[in-house]
Amino acid sequence: MSFEAGLLQILIRMHVISGEDALALEQAYHASDINQFDEFLLSEGIVDEENLLQALSEYYQVPAFDVVGYFFEHHYVHMFPKGVLLRNVMIPMEVEGNCMIVVASNPNNPELLVELGNYVSYDIQFYVGIGRHICDAVEEFSDKADTEISEDEDIDAEQRLSNEEQRLIDEFYQVEEEGKGDESSGVFIEDEDNIE
């Protein structure tokens, strides 16, 4: 049984589509320009993301995971070349002991373990996710350096203020140690002998 037929059978059992709709949907998919069946179902509004993830979980017999809004650890993502993750539509989610959890659009693909094994020696546990969301997450998190801070992770306003205050204090003392100031530094220290 093809992936399309298997997924449609699950969606019928879930009462998301009717048996009459299944054949028409499969034919419409093959006539479309969309390469991935799950993407076709989403783009046509046949299923919502929650139902699709539930159906994919049942089809692949692994837990489903919605990657949208999840903060992936940069150092796990950077263990693999971006091209490998995008080509195989997968992203490492977390490590628990000696096991790495990887979210993939097709966790049954036997090549995934080979690809992952080229870079890490963890045991691999697969979750299934929606392909386009996985690729979006790979693009977002593989392009960030480990030390890059996003707006969500940014230090709070109080810390930013104290950092700015410390910079100004350091700058002031540096000028004072030189024994003079000039207009270009923004700090001017008058000669006490000239003060009347």
Overview of this structure, please?
The chain is mainly alpha-helical. It folds into 2 domains: 3-60; 62-177, GMP Synthetase, Chain A, domain 3, CATH 3.30.300.160. 48% of the residues lie in helices and 10% in strands. It has helices at 3-13, 19-31, 37-43, 49-60, 74-77, 82-88, 111-117, 131-142, 157-177; strands at 90-96, 99-104, 123-128. The chain has a 3-stranded mixed beta sheet. The model is unreliable at 146-161 and 181-189 (pLDDT under 50).
In short, what is this structure?
The protein has 196 residues and is mostly helical. It has helices spanning 3-13, 19-31, 37-43, 49-60, 74-77, 82-88, 111-117, 131-142, 157-177, and strands at residues 90-96, 99-104, 123-128.
Q: Examine the secondary-structure arrangement and name the CATH architecture of the largest domain.
A: 2-Layer Sandwich
User: Tell me, what is the CATH class of the largest domain?
Assistant: Alpha Beta
**Neighbour order of strands in the largest sheet:** 1-2-3
Shape: elongated
Binned, the helix content reads 40-55%
Q: What is the radius of gyration?
A: 27 Å
Distance between the termini: 98 Å
Structural domain tally: 2
Percentage of residues in strands: 5-15%
Within CATH, the superfamily of the largest domain carries the name Type II secretion system, protein E, N-terminal domain
Quick tags:
3 strands, GMP Synthetase, Chain A, domain 3, 196 residues
Write the layout of secondary structure elements.
Elements: H1 3-13, H2 19-31, H3 37-43, H4 49-60, H5 74-77, H6 82-88, E1 90-96, E2 99-104, H7 111-117, E3 123-128, H8 131-142, H9 157-177
Parallel strand pairs: 2-3
Antiparallel strand pairs: 1-2
Helix pairs in contact: 1-4
